[in-house]
Amino acid sequence: MSEFTVGETDFLLDGRPVRLLSGALHYFRVHEDQWRHRLAMLRAMGLNCVETYVPWNLHEPAPGRYRDVAAVGRFLDAVREAGLWAIVRPGPYICAEWENGGLPAWLTGGLGTRVRTRDERYLSPVRDWFRRLLPEVVSRQADRGGPVLLVQVENEYGSYGSDAGHLAALAELLRAEGVTAALFTSDGPEDHMLTGGSLPGVLATANFGSHAREAFAALRRHRPEGPLMCAEFWCGWFDHWSGESAVRDPGEAARALREILECGASVNLYMAHGGTSFGGWAGANRGGELHEGALLPDVTSYDYDAPVDEYGRPTEKFWRFREVLAGHRPGPLPELPPQPPGLAAPADVLLTGWAPLEAVLEALGGAETCSPRPPSFEDLGVTRGLVRYRVDVPGPRRPRPLSVRGLRDLAVVYVDGERAGVLTEEEPRLPEPVAGPARVELWVESLGRVNYGPRLGEAKGITGGVLHERQYLHGVRARGLDLDAFEDGVSAVPFGAPPPADGGPGLYRGTAAVFGTAGDARLELPGLTRGFAWVNGFCLGRYWSVGPQRSLYVPGPVLREGTNEVWVLELEGAQGGAAGALRLLPV
């Protein structure tokens, strides 16, 4: 057992000053069988600590229905076995470029801007969640022989609100549930963020990617005493669909890290190893200075241009950081662990069946509802996935523009069974007018809930209505298909023979024969447009032909020697006759 305290100038471990050299690694973005390898990579880089968030929505998909909360404890046990300390950031809001910032959609759907405040309708479910989660953390604190040194109160609250009572209530809840570890807050090094997000009596830290001296000077204006720490050193960045891949020069990043350490500060690399947003859990941002602009969905890969890449390999940035960190660690650094095996040889995916979206919805979807106005995803209990809306245009009437108000995020539209276009929030009107009578189907997809900024918690689906010219069309029938429905398999789906290679939207099923080593691989989906893919029932996440991500990472533990089953839920249809060219390739 150890005693970790926050002194006037330093962190103290059993009374001796200690500098935390930490790196972010999210247990939920790494296959559990690979945790130990990734932790060993962090140690080899020169780190003595690892930091992780905890995503509430992953572990409580419905009120009172919990899913593998024990994973948090198993990860912390692996951290201790790796000889590292731990920083835990339990939220309840985490950002993390994760769906809804980690908050459950079933919670935010009815609360709106009351989330992240002291409103009892928000705090009550938070208490229930923390009472379930925190025993996994409390029993693994340093004063009980575990690795946990620090626990964060909320996350970057100063970027969102100023309800100090909310932060105080969360800190009191952490203490009441047995957290004895030192508490801290983290915010950007700006006055309004530090005043809104810090809490008296709780260590305040700063998040930034460069200019450490200026950032720590801003922090000192608010907190003249206490250890200096950069709780998020942004050594890379994340990518958005249809954007460019973010890259930071390794030498420049190493110089920024060196500056932090020259200030005598502790540091947490964000990210040390980013991993992957498996399961369709990638979030989204809003563009513009005030984060109120166009939706910017995050890609599935969370590589983050981190020193340990998505596949667990050291990058040039790793070696530059290792050189810097070696000067702040006693003795030689550990050697790198052996790299996990990769796929021995490419494997083609042989398509064996296909079912149209209509049949998939019938087999795996929820119940259909009918209401005057379109229900949101939240109304239908859909977190990640899509909703089919049906509405009739009365007639006879001459052709008029058909549009969707409050569309979030993308709709493939059919009029009397014929594809009529793809609508988005920015382009909500069909290119051709629609005459009545007509039946309109809109297959609406969420591209990821906002994880940062004032639009946090906004609803998905059709949040306004369907209009014919200026007239709302009422009597909307809606049915949802949630990605969680695939967890029990697809045996209920009535597959037929595979369609032509340029087949339409639907669920494709196939097999890939792996000979030799069944190790790390990537799935290529040439010719497909947008959707989700699974290998042996494990959801790899979203693919999208707009890039910049061109393939999906398949962790080695997911594959097996011999026959592997592949499912692909294509939401628009194959292009160029290439749906039959899916392949597993070595990384």
UniProtKB/TrEMBL annotation:
Question: For the Glycoside hydrolase 35 catalytic domain, which residue ranges apply?
Answer: 11-325
For biological process, the GO terms are: carbohydrate metabolic process
Q: Keywords on this record?
A: Glycosidase, Hydrolase
Domain (Beta-galactosidase galactose-binding): residue spans on this chain: 505-564
Every Beta-galactosidase 1-like first all-beta domain range: 374-475
The cross-references to InterPro entries, in alphabetical order and at most eight, read: B-gal_1-like, BetaGal1-like_ABD1, BetaGal_gal-bd, Galactose-bd-like_sf, GH, Gly_Hdrlase_35_cat, Glyco_hydro_35_CS, Glycoside_Hdrlase_35
Per the UniProt entry, what species is this protein from, by scientific name? Streptomyces misionensis
The molecular function terms of the Gene Ontology recorded here are:
beta-galactosidase activity
KW Repressor (keyword) present: no
- Into which family does the record put it? Belongs to the glycosyl hydrolase 35 family.
According to its UniProt record, which residues of this chain constitute the active site? 156, 232
Q: Which Pfam family, just one, is annotated for this protein?
A: Glyco_hydro_35
Tell me the PROSITE patterns matching this sequence: GLYCOSYL_HYDROL_F35
The protein's name in its UniProt record: Beta-galactosidase
Task: Cite the source lineage.
Answer: Bacteria, Bacillati, Actinomycetota, Actinomycetes, Kitasatosporales
